[in-house]
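Handout, section B. The chain below has 280 residues.
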Amino acid sequence: MCAAMLAGGVTLALMTLPFVGWRNWLDWFQIGRDAAGMYSTDINWVHVSRDLLNIPRRWLWVPEPADEWRAWWGAMLGWGLWLAVVGSTVSLALLRRRQAQAATGPVAAFLLLGAWMSCYHFMYYEILLTALPVLLLFTEPRRYLEPILLAVVPFGRTVAQGGPSAYFEPTLPQNYPPPLEAFPAGPTSVAVLNRLVPSLLVLLLAIEHLFPALNVFVTVKAGVPGIGYTSPDGTISTLLSTPWDAYCLLVLWLWCGWQWVRERPSQPEAPAREPGSGPR
């Protein structure tokens, strides 16, 4: 994906040379360097951006010039979030290289969303680039139509005395409990568990299109007692707002990663051979 983005950018730049020449590109690079210095300090760019680095900065923003500790904490938290996402994506891809070749499903969506979030500067309209990984989760829509039933039923005294109660006591467990026998659950104690992926997609579309049209908004405010800090208001109805769309995609990335971690490898990864070693 990174190679494709690099090749696409270089190709588009080369196509413009017969029309604008190479000096205009040198001017553009200078403008880009100047803009990069303002990216973390300009209030408009901080709030319309959707990258991981600027997520903490918007909560530490003040109308006046930012204090040094706020700027430092905003930068550290932003880079920490970026390193956590990119590091997790790369580590899981390297540990499970065979599974990383999947073309659809949570594995492919996890890698593409991680690659998208690895870009350290992008704006709200570049949320559209996540359409591919999101749609890769719906290549088999039938599975989202299968209900997941969740039952909350108290164990009978006979079942509890059979072994599970000892496992859940506030001590270190010695062995896993024996498998539980099937027990009846009445219709009043059974619920249908809502699917996370379709719910996040509906929420993402509602945040972008439905809420602004209906003038529905939510205000979020945070403060730290003792130091006199209060965050700016965050709403979901304007561009200058908390990036709820980015939060939805971050949760979706976490869910895809969790599904991948839970999935057992079909066969162990082949260890790398040392130079000169052969079959014995």
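Note. Residues 43-142+194-262 form one domain. Compare this with the example in section A.
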